[in-house]
User: Fold this.
Amino acid sequence: MNTEPHGGEHQRMPVDADMGDLLSSALDDGKAYFAAQADYYKLQASGQVGKAAGSLASLLIVSVLAMLVVLCASVALALWLGMLVSSMALGFLIVAGVYLLALLLFLVAGGGALRKSITLKVINSLYHGQN
Assistant:
C-alpha cells in the first residue's frame, strides 16, 4: 500500500541542503529577533527619556515662576521694612539676612536628604517609568 499523498516516489533533497537551509533560516530568524529586540529597547528608552525631559521642563517652568513670585514678594517686603525702619537699604539687608539664615538652616538640616530624594526620583523615573 502506498502512503505517499501523490502516489509517486518521494524525492528527497540531500540532507546537507536541508540542514543548510534550516541553519540559514534559523540564523535569519535570530537576526530578525535581535533586531526587533534592539528596536524595542530603543523605543522603550526613548519613551523614558521623553518622560524625564517632560518632567524636567515642567519642573523648570514651575521653578522659574516660583522664583519670580519670591523675588517680587521679597522686594515688596524689603520696601515695606525699609519704610518701617526709615532706611531702604536696611530693609533689603533684613530680607537678605532672613534668606541667608534660611539657606544655612537648609544646608545644615536637609540638603543631603533633598538631594537623595531627587536622585531617587530621577532613577525611578528613568528605570521604572514612575513619575
